[in-house]
Amino acid sequence: MSWQIKKFEELTNIELYAILKERTLIFVVEQNCPYLEVDGKDPACYHLYKEDNGQIAAYLRIVPAGIAYQEASLGRVIVSQAYRGQGIARELLQRGIDFVRHELQETAIKIQAQSHLQQFYGSFGFRAVTESYLEDNIPHVDMILSDEAEAIL
Question: Which residues form the N-acetyltransferase domain (predicted)?
Fold first, then answer.
């Protein structure tokens, strides 16, 4: 298995298809949440993923500052069902944070986390900056990783 990080235009058709297939499988089908998963932001993003024989094992997209939020953002964080429980999510998130800090030279990262994952993201230093709210009928909380972030919860 190998880690890849690519700009949108660097992805092959096969890679993009595999990424979108896995994102849709998890966010739309597995979570039973019909919404527009392909939201128009992908062309402006970096795509970090771990591939295993053509299968996307883990993925997240890195959204540069000014696209979704004032801050850079990590989103669409997934680990395929067959690869869960192996620590891949921790490695994936750390790689995303490192890329934002070292390659994009950004100091703040904002995420829109599903509320049940607040503790997981908190273990990386993310702090809640909103109360829990419903997004696509799933409880979420906005979180920021920054030296200046002030937790309200």
Answer: 6-148
**Residue-number span of the structural domain to which 36 is assigned:** 2-108
Question: What is the CA angle 19-22-27, rounded to 5?
Answer: 120
The answer to the question of residue 30 being in a domain is yes
User: H or E element: which one contains 93?
Assistant: helix 88-98
* Structural domain count of the chain: 1
* Residue keyed to tokens 């829109």: 112
CATH number at residue 104: 3.40.630.30
Percent above pLDDT 70 for the chain? 95
Classify 3 as helix, strand or coil.
strand
* Residues 64 and 84 sit within 8 Å (Cβ to Cβ): no
Question: Residue 49: which of 7, 101, 13 has the closest Cα?
Answer: 7
> Each residue of 10-67: pLDDT tens digit?
999 999 999 999 999 888 888 887 777 888 999 999 999 999 988 999 999 999 999 9
The maximal CA–CA distance of the chain, rounded, in angstroms, is 43
Please name which of 63, 91, 89, 57 lies closest in space to residue 75, comparing C-alpha atoms: 63
